[in-house]
Every structure is written in C-alpha cells, then in structure tokens.
Design goal:
Largest sheet: 4 strands, antiparallel
Distance between the termini: 46 Å
CATH superfamily: Winged helix-like DNA-binding domain superfamily/Winged helix DNA-binding domain
Structural class: alpha+beta
CATH class: Mainly Alpha
Order of helices and strands: HEEEEHEHHEE
C-alpha cells in the first residue's frame, strides 16, 4: 500500500513538472495587481514583492489565460489541466486551487481577475 502511494506521488509530481515545463504561448500575464511569469512560475507585485506558484497553479493559470473571456467549467479543468476523466468525480480540489491562486494574485475580496460564474465555472478576465 505504501509503495502504491509513493508511486502515485512520484507519478503526480512528474506529471505536474511535465505540464509546467511545456512551452506556452502565454509566458507572461499582466494583471491588475502585478504580473506573472509562467516560465518561472513567479508572481510579481508592483510593490516589488512576489511569490512562487506551484506547478499545478501555473498550469491552471496558463489554461485560464489561454481561454480568457470564456467561462471554463470544473469538468473542463479536470479534463484539460488535471488530465482526468471528470465522469463520476466529485471533488472540491479545483475550488481550493482557485482560492490559493486568487490569494497569490491578490484577487481575494471581490475577485476581478478570476471570477466565479455560479453554476458554470470560472472566468479569467486578466488585466
């Protein structure tokens, strides 16, 4: 059992790393409160501060940016970013990643960059 857990963890880390290292057409994203370098997974704030995105957060933000202005469902995110079949999966993992991503983008009190469209999914507005 422990071996299975370790194998799954290694597979998940390799998969996240591989996704984060894929080339993209959106290497830098300008935001209302800073910018994000997706190549490095870094968020930079106007005050000179910054923070690091996890590989999964960078993949998620990249997907949102590539589909800006379009509502993206949780099922689509599970399928395209997590590479999972969303059938029969009930999870709040997408919501938790979005909450963490909003925190790092300083988009928390009344989200303007990454909006929730109730009953449908998320809408990335950007700068």
């Amino acid at each position: 059992m422990l071996l299975q857990v370790l194998q799954y963890s290694c597979y998940t880390m390799k998969k996240e790393t591989a996704l984060a290292n894929e080339t993209t057409e959106t290497p830098e994203i300008k935001l209302r409160r800073g910018s994000v370098d997706l190549t490095r997974g870094e968020v930079r704030y106007p005050d000179g501060g910054g923070c690091q995105l996890s590989a999964r957060e960078a993949d998620l933000l990249r997907y949102f940016a590539e589909n800006a202005g379009r509502v993206i469902s949780r099922d689509e995110i599970l399928s395209k970013v997590w590479r999972l079949n969303p059938r029969n999966i009930i999870t709040r993992v997408i919501d938790m990643h979005v909450v963490h991503l909003r925190g790092k983008l300083r988009d928390t009190s009344k989200p303007q960059t990454l909006r929730t469209v109730h009953g449908q999914g998320y809408l990335f507005v950007g700068a």
